[in-house]
Every structure is written in C-alpha cells, then in structure tokens.
Amino acid sequence: MGGLQEVLLVLFLQGLLGSSIGQEINNRFFPDSLKIGVASAAPQIEGGWNQGSKGVTIWDTFAMSHANLIIDRSTPEAACNSYNKWREDLAIIKGLNSQFYSLSIAWARILPTGYYNGTDSINERGVTYYKTILKALIKKGIEPMVTLYHWDLPDQLQDDFGGWLSPKAADLFAEYARLCYKLFGDEVKWWITINEPKQVCEAGYGGGGFAPGIVKPGVGNYICAKNVLLAHAKAYRIYDEEFRATNKGKVAMVIDTPWFEPGSQSPDDVAAAERARLFMYGLYGHPIYYGDWPEIVKDRVALRSYGEGLEVSRLPEFTPEEKKLIKGTSDYLTINYYATHMANATGEAPFDRRSFYDDMNIIE
Ligand SMILES: *[C@@H]1O[C@H](CO)[C@@H](O)[C@H](O)[C@H]1NC(C)=O
Ligand SMILES: *[C@@H]1O[C@H](CO)[C@@H](O)[C@H](O)[C@H]1NC(C)=O
C-alpha cells in the first residue's frame, strides 16, 4: 500500500447537506494534500436510457418490473437527465470548486449487449459522450475518477448466463475494462473497477432488493462476491500489464462498509463488531489484500452450512491460481462510509433458513 500520497475525500452531496449544515463552525483546516470532490453514477444521473444506441441494463428492466421496491417509483429512464445536461452539471461541479469528479461509465453505452466482439461492437456514440465529458473536465482543471461498474450490468448478460452468478461475467468485464483503458487511458488516472460490491452481490443476488432482484440469500451473494472479485482482479492485472507503464494511473475496487462499534466492552460484543467488519468490508478487502476470505467468514459460513445439512460450505473456495490472481490488486485503499453501527453478540439462529445475516451472527 505504502505509496498512498494523496488522500481523496468524496463528499456525497446528500450526506453533506444532511449532516454538516447548521452545525458549529470551527477553525481547523484540512491538509493541502487532501482533495475534495463530488461523485455520481451513470444509472443514477444519466437518464437517456435508450438514447445514443445505449443497451438495456439490469437497472432499466428492474426499475420497470419492480417499481414497488423503489420508494418514489423513479427509474433510470430520465434520472437527472445528465446525458443531455452534462454541460450544466460540469458547470455546477466547477462552481463547487471540486478538485475531482468521480463518475461512472455505463458498460451498455460502450458495448450495448455487454459483449466485446471486435471494433464493430463498440458504440461510438457512447465513446464520444464520455470522451467529451472527460476532456471538458480536464479543461476545467477537474480531475476525473472513473468507475467502470456502478451496478448497471448489460441486461443481455443477465439473460444469457445469470450475470454475476457466472464467472463469464468476470471475463466479459475484463474485456470491457481493457477497452475503456484503451479508449480513455489518456484522460483517466484514477480507475475504480467495481463500486460497492456488497450492494451488487448481497442486494442484487442475495436479498434481491436491487437489480437484478435475484433472491438467493446466503448463496447467490457469495457466488457473486467471488465472480466480482475475479472481475476486479482480471481488470487490475490487465491495467498492470498492458497500460500502467504508459498511462501511469491507479486502479482499485471501491468497497463500502458501515463501521461497527461493539455495544459493550464484553469480549463477545467486541468479537461481534470485528466479525461484522470482516463480513462487510473483509469479504472483499481481505481477498484483495491477503488473497483469501477472512478465516472468521470461512468458519462461520461453514458452520452454518453444515448445520443446515449441506456437505460443503455455501462460501465458494478460491483455487490457488485465483488467490494469486486476486492478492495485491489494489493501488489505493478505498472506503465508502455512511454511518457507524453498534454490534452485539447474539445466539445462533435456527438452521432452517440460509442468510448472510445469520452467517454474520450479530445484533445490529
Ligand atoms: C459475438 O460474437 C459471437 C461469435 O461470432 C456470436 O455468437 C455472438 O452472438 C456475438 N454476440 C453479440 C452480442 O454480438
Ligand atoms: C448491546 O449491548 C449493550 C451492553 O450490554 C446494551 O446496552 C445494548 O442495549 C445492547 N443492544 C442490543 C441491540 O442488544
């Protein structure tokens, strides 16, 4: 990790407005090396869901088919219309004095079906859209930070092989990543492979509250986690081997987690808080830094799996080659943090159901 010279602070505007305004002003200063910027995601702001030959994503279809799960029934169809109003958006970012802007590329704008099938499969209009924004940012002195995947899988890949439940998604993501490095490597020095894998996997393929709405608690989430880690690692290695020498950028996965404090200083509650951190951040961070799932996660999922009468753990294993591939694939440490939670120890849940949360085994 050692080489972290710059600290990046992304202020999510919602959080900023919700928590800082109206509180006491103090005279402490941020260090000059701290950069402050803003962030967005393609499916959250772009709209233009079928403009510019963009392909359909799992969030496009999910928002239509599961409108009841979305508080105000909003969809990515129009969103903030940034596809058409990006000039205004960039002016606002400049007006905030942001030093960088973290945005995401919609895979389906570059490769409408998700597959890279030679140069004919590239959607030039999508390429032009991002290229224009990236150049405009640099001209304004705002550094771009680009996420390759912010939850918007091309729908075709979900239909063809179950999306992140298949390692094929990792291979196709790696192809897409290589293409983006090639197309935008001159402008982009900060790359994020996957944003918030826990949301992709636990919400998308475990609980099913997010696209693609697959309900496979305690099973789909872990299969997805493995495939997302493979996708990240392959994309990292491609950058490392083919682009780093010329483009000199940095690559990481952005992992989200609450922080967990123990409800008391009793050893059981202290252990519960640590277990929660390992299930939330460690599920992704541990393989990336140490090459495998955290031991506690392995032990817990195995214990629950055997209790449920399974012969193997619901947590898939990594082969030695996969461990080697994944270990060390981070140029900078990332945390998306929203709140601190309290964690207490709790008794073992009945073995008649499968659940990520029973595996974690805490009271929040
Ligand atoms: C990509 O190419 C393969 C092989 O030619 C073909 O089978 C497949 O349908 C193509 N996929 C897309 C989405 O174009
Ligand atoms: C957690 O433990 C502390 C200390 O025993 C207690 O005060 C608190 O109410 C507990 N919280 C929950 C949700 O059990």
UniProtKB/TrEMBL annotation:
Q: Which family does it belong to?
A: Belongs to the glycosyl hydrolase 1 family.
Per the UniProt entry, the signal peptide is 1-22
InterPro entries for the chain: GH, Glyco_hydro_1
Biological process terms from the Gene Ontology for this record are: carbohydrate metabolic process
Q: Drop me one GO molecular function for this one.
A: beta-glucosidase activity
UniProt keyword list = Glycosidase, Hydrolase, Signal
Superkingdom of source: Eukaryota
Its protein name is Uncharacterized protein
